[in-house]
Design a protein that fits this description.
Layout (H helix, E strand, L loop, with lengths): L1 H4 L2 H24 L3 H8 L3 H8 L8 H10 L10
Helix pairs in contact: 3-4, 3-5
Length: 81
Amino acid sequence: MLRAEGIFSEVQANALKRAIAEAVSDRMTNAGLSKVEMARRMRTSRSQLERVLDPACTAVQLDTLVKAANAVGCELRIWLK
């Protein structure tokens, strides 16, 4: 149905970004990291971190997502099925 309507890619991107944002946020909470400390670990600005944590913002660079994962002791993995 989504493919027929031509919105599958957009819906998929939104769902993936929501999952990533939630996972990073959960890891930050579990590690007791503030946004300031998280941005410092990522060597980026707080506004860039806000884009990572915003589930609606799908225009985040891959290297930024990798930095976010690494900052909370994780590894970002992507595969094609």
